[in-house]
Specification:
Elements lengths: L4 H15 L4 E2 L10 E11 L8 E12 L5 H14 L10 E14 L6 E12 L1
Parallel strand pairs: 1-2
Antiparallel strand pairs: 2-3, 3-5, 4-5
Helix pairs in contact: 1-2
């Protein structure tokens, strides 16, 4: 079975696009208005047993961008992401998502003093 990385990204994009009240992007078009969510990056570690199916432990990072005054909007969107993805069954077109968990959420004000960023870290175990 092929590597599930692209299938995972497509499934996350589809699930988030259907579940959130804001747009979701892999690549943000120039001039896009806030708020929105971006699929930022993924780190994969080999977690395969000595014998058996290939397994990876993946950390997938999402970012929330907002110019709303204060952190309320970012926190609301972080919560929407957690509700949509924590401990769900996520069907993939290649491989299998054994576990999907929201590992961490955070918020911070960007150095420009206007923009706020939220972060959501997903821990996803895939098998193929």
């Amino acid at each position: 079975m092929s590597d599930p990385s692209l299938a995972l990204q497509a499934a996350l994009f589809q699930k988030l696009s259907a579940s959130l009240t804001v747009p979701v992007f892999d690549a943000v078009p120039m001039g896009t208005a806030y708020p929105y969510v971006t699929l930022d990056y993924e780190v994969s570690d080999n977690a395969s047993p000595i014998s058996g199916k290939k397994r990876e432990n993946r950390l997938f990072y999402l970012s929330v961008w907002s110019d709303y005054q204060g952190q309320a909007e970012v926190k609301r969107i972080n919560s929407e992401i957690a509700s949509a993805l924590d401990e769900i069954a996520l069907p993939l077109s290649a491989g299998r998502a054994v576990s999907v968990r929201v590992l961490r959420t955070s918020t911070n004000r960007e150095p420009d003093g206007v923009t706020y960023m939220g972060s959501v870290t997903l821990q996803i175990i895939t098998q193929h």
